[in-house]
C-alpha cells in the first residue's frame, strides 16, 4: 500500500462525482447510506467494486497506476512521461508537449550548427 498523490486523489474525486451512479452530492454513497469512502482523506487500498469495474476504466492511466498492472494500449509521453492512449504514431500526450519537444529539437539543432561554424 502507498499514499495516493494529489493528482490521483483529484482524478478519483472527479470520476466519482461525475460518473459514479451510486454517488449523490447530497447523500453520498446511496448503497452504503453514508459518505463515499472513495472521497476520504486517507485511502486504505480497497475501493468500491462498482467504481473499480464501471468508473475506473474511464481513465486508463489512473487505472494502470492504481492496479499496478500493465496499461494495455497506453504509451508514456516522450516529454513529461504521463501515460496516454496513442492515436497512430503520436509520441506526445498533448499539443503543449509536442511544442516543447519541437522547441528543444530546434534549440539543439541551432546549438550544433553554431558550434560547427
Protein model, in words:
This protein folds into two domains: 6-67, no CATH class; 75-116, no CATH class. The longest helix has 22 residues, at 95-116. It is mainly alpha-helical and 117 residues long. The strands form two sheets. A two-stranded antiparallel sheet has the order 1-2. A two-stranded antiparallel ribbon has the order 3-4. The mean pLDDT is 79. Helices cover 44% and strands 7% of the residues.
Q: How many helix segments? A: 4
Radius of gyration of CA atoms, rounded to a whole number: 20 Å
Major β-sheet profile? 2 strands, antiparallel
Distance between the termini: 56 Å
User: How many separate structural domains?
Assistant: 2
Instruction: Give the spatial strand order of the biggest sheet.
Output: 1-2
Residue fraction in strands: 5-15%
How many beta-strand elements?
A: 4
Shape: elongated
Order of helices and strands: HEEHHEEH
Structural class: mainly alpha
Helix content estimate: 40-55%
Average pLDDT reading? 79
Organism: Acetatifactor muris
Pfam families: Cys_rich_VLP
Protein name: Cysteine-rich VLP domain-containing protein
